[in-house]
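Throughout our pipeline, every protein is held as a single compact record rather than as scattered files. Such a record has a labelled line for the sequence and another for the backbone structure tokens. This encoding replaces a full spatial description with a residue-level series of whole-number codes. For reference, a complete record is included directly beneath this paragraph.
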Amino acid sequence: MINNIEVERPRECLTIGRIAPDFTAVTTEGIITLSQYRGRWVLLFSHPGDFTPVCTSEFIAFAQLYPEFEKRNVQLLGVSIDSNPAHIGWLYDIYLMTGIVMPFPLIADRDAHVAELYGMVNPDRVYELSVRDVFIIDPNQRIRAILTYPASNGRNMYELLRLIDALQVSTTYGVSTPANWMPGDPVIVPVASTLEEALERGTTSLDDLTCFAWWYCFTDLSDLTPLPKP
């Protein structure tokens, strides 16, 4: 919990597409920097406080699905403004309850530096807690998604995995994913960029596309090739 910590408000609001601010922090696995994970996807998530039921359920769920995040080259990083001894004591209690040893670092953000960098502090400071935020950061350390949940409601880990799958597909193939997309479903191809292409899509049956309008076309991922790496 933030206890009378006075910190400056962030100068700029973090938005999707911006470079994720780097930081160095003490964690339950030693000192880390965000930039050491460049080349991997990072899921940076905050929680309101240690020894709380909803946060405990989330950490158990993250740990249980950790192999799925690893398959996707995703590094999990938790953060709250509790001390490192409090983190260790809480994770030890989780181990005693479940037998789970937490497989990812938990940042001790006592001065709220990370929370402030990422706007994780409740702006009204009503409850003196960091909010339940998620930042999905790509291997080039750009922020690709931001999600915020209230303290009263835990996150859906399967939705986070689904979103990471969708972001990785979009990054690799230059396509979009429709509402309720799941891995294996058709994807949306970019809108036609020339009149000739629009006419072809609107008047011709194309083997690799299913078009409902010249600007609304789907394809199977198996028909695509990855974009060249920059």
